[in-house]
Amino acid sequence: MISKVRKVPVNGRVAVIGAGISGLTYSYFLRKLRPDIKITIFESSRRVGGWISSRKIDLKDGSEVFLEKGPRTLRVVSDGTLLIIDILKQLGATDQIYGMKKDSVANRKYLLTNTNELLAVPYSTKTAIRFLGSGIVNDVLKGLILEPFRSKRAQRDESVAQFFRRRLGNDALTNNIISAIYHGIYAGDVAQLSVQSLMPKMVELEKTHGSLLRGAMAKRKSGTKGPVLPDTLIQYSQKISPNSSFEELKDQLKGINLIRLQDGLETFPNAVAASLKGSVDFRFGSEVTHIDPSTGSVKVDNGVEKFDHIRSTINTNKLSELLQDDEMKNVLSLDYVSVLLANIYTKKPVIIPEGQHGFGFLVPKSHPNEECLLGTIFDSDIENYTDPIFQNAIQGQFSKTSTYNKVTLMIGGHFYNDRNVPSGKIIEKKIKNILQRIFDIRGTDYNLIFENPAELFPDKMALKANDVLISYNLHENCIPQYNVGYEQKKALVSSLIASKYDNRISLGGMAFGEGVGVPDCVMSSLGHALEIA
Ligand SMILES: C=Cc1c2[nH]c(c1C)Cc1[nH]c(c(CCC(=O)O)c1C)Cc1[nH]c(c(C)c1CCC(=O)O)Cc1[nH]c(c(C)c1C=C)C2
C-alpha cells in the first residue's frame, strides 16, 4: 500500500467515531503502533460491539442459551480471520476459538425449492445427481452451451443479473442460484448489485477471453498460484505482534473452514475494548453532531474538540449529515438494507429436518416468498460440529447428536426496499408463517414465546419441552449495498477526501472498506492504522 496519508504528530489526537469492531480494532492497532497518540472513541450507545451482539439467556434449570444477534462465524480463507485469531491469542482468549472442519456435516448448504424442500448444494455424487435432476439448472445448462459463442460487450459496470443474462441468454442461474448466494452475504438484490464489485474475476475472464467458459478453461491449464500473505499482515507481524506467524497459523488451520467463539462473537469486541480501557478515552452516550475534517474539529453535544485525524466507522449516510458538505453528501450516500433477525431455540431437536443437517439454507429470488425470508442458519449444527482448535488437535469430525435446536431466520434485506418494513405483531405473524410453511412448527402444537428489544424474556425462564423461544431484532440499515457504479463512487470518495480534507479523515467499516464481513472490517482497520502511525 503506498501511503499518501500524513502521519499523526507526536502526542497527537485521533477521534474514532463508533465503538463497533471497526472502531475498536482501529484503536487497538493504533495504540500498539503509536502509544503516544491520544485516542478518543465516541459511541452514541452505552455498549461496544456494534452489530456484533451475543445474548445469554439463563434458564431455571441452571443451563444457558447463547443467541447470536448479528454475525457469528468467521471464514478461515479470509486474511482478516487470521488477524482476529492472532489478536484473540494476544488477549488470552485462545480457548474461545472453535473450528469447523471443511468436510463437516455442518458445512453443507441448501437451497429452498419452490415446494419448500431443502435441496443440497452438491457435496457428493448422489447430491450432485439430485441437484442436476431438480430442474433448477435446466436453462442454466442450455445457456452455458452457447456461452462461448456470445459476443462480449464494451466494459461498463452492470448488475450481476444483467451480466449473466448477457452471457447465458436467460435468468435461470441468477434467479435460482446466484440470487440466493448474495442473499447470504449482502441480503442484496442481484438486479442492483454490481458485477464489477462482487465478481471482478468473472468480468476479467470475459474481458480477456471473450467468454467465461473459455476463460475458466485457460485458467485451469495455467494453474493458480497459492494466496500470498498481504503486506499489511507482514507489517503487523513486524510492528505489532512479533510472535505471530501467519504461515504457521495457516498450517494449523488446514482443513478448517470457519471459526466461532464459544461464548459468542461479542467476546472479541469485549476483549479488545477491555484491553483499551485506561489507555483510550471511551465516551459512551456521546452523540457527534458535526465534523469538520479540514480543521479536525468534532462537535459532541455542546462542546467542540480538535483532532489530528478523524476515523469514521459509522453509516456513511449518517456521516454525510455530520459533514454538512453537499459534494461529499452525494458521493458518500449508499443504499443500505435492513435485516430482521429471528433467533429460535427449542429444547427438543424439532426444527432442523432429519438428514438435512448443515450450515443452513438460502432462499433464491425465484422462490415465492411473501415473508421475505433470505435464509436460515442452523446454529445448533454449527455448535455441535465445532471443536476447540488450540487446546487439543481436532480428532475427527464431531457428530454429537443435537439434543436441542437453534436456528436463525434472516428476513428482509432488499425485499424491504419495495415494501414497508413490518413492525410488532406483523413481524410475529411472518415468523409464525415461516415456521409453519417450512419447518412444520405450528402454534397449535407448540407454545411460541416471543421476545423483542422492548419486551425481554423474564430472568431464569422455565422452559418446557414444547416451548419455542423466538427472539427477534430489526437491524436497520445494517448492510451497505455495493450496487452498480460502486467502484467509481469508492474512487471518488477517496480522491475527494484527499483533495478536500488532506486525508484528515478516513473511513472504516463496511461501506468503503474491504468488504462487508467482520474480517474485512478488521483488515481495513489495520491498513489505515498503519498508514497514519
Ligand atoms: C441469509 C442472510 C445472511 C446470512 N449471512 C449473512 C446474511 C446477510 C451475512 C454474511 N454472510 C457472509 C458474509 C461475508 C463475510 C465474510 O466473507 O467474511 C456476510 C456479511 C459469508 C457467506 N455466507 C454464505 C456464503 C455463501 C458466504 C460467502 C462465502 C462463504 O462463506 O462460503 C452462505 C450463507 N449465509 C447465510 C446462510 C443461511 C448461508 C448458507 C446456507 C446467512
UniProtKB/TrEMBL annotation:
Transmembrane segments: 12-30
Alphabetic keyword roster: FAD, Flavoprotein, Heme biosynthesis, Membrane, Oxidoreductase, Porphyrin biosynthesis, Transmembrane, Transmembrane helix
Catalyses which reaction(s): protoporphyrinogen IX + 3 O2 = protoporphyrin IX + 3 H2O2
Principal location: mitochondrion
Single Gene Ontology BP annotation: protoporphyrinogen IX biosynthetic process
EC number per UniProt: 1.3.3.4
GO CC, alphabetical: mitochondrial inner membrane
One GO MF term: oxygen-dependent protoporphyrinogen oxidase activity
UniProt enzyme class: oxidoreductase
Keyword Membrane listed: yes
Subcellular location per the Swiss-Prot or TrEMBL entry: Mitochondrion inner membrane
Database matches in InterPro entries: Amino_oxidase, FAD/NAD-bd_sf, Protoporphyrinogen_oxidase, Zeta_carotene_desat/Oxidored
Pfam families xrefs: Amino_oxidase (PF01593)
Cofactor: FAD
Function noted in UniProt: Catalyzes the 6-electron oxidation of protoporphyrinogen-IX to form protoporphyrin-IX.
NCBIfam families attached to this UniProt entry: proto_IX_ox
Name of the protein: Protoporphyrinogen oxidase
Organism this protein belongs to: Pichia sorbitophila (strain ATCC MYA-4447 / BCRC 22081 / CBS 7064 / NBRC 10061 / NRRL Y-12695) (Hybrid yeast)
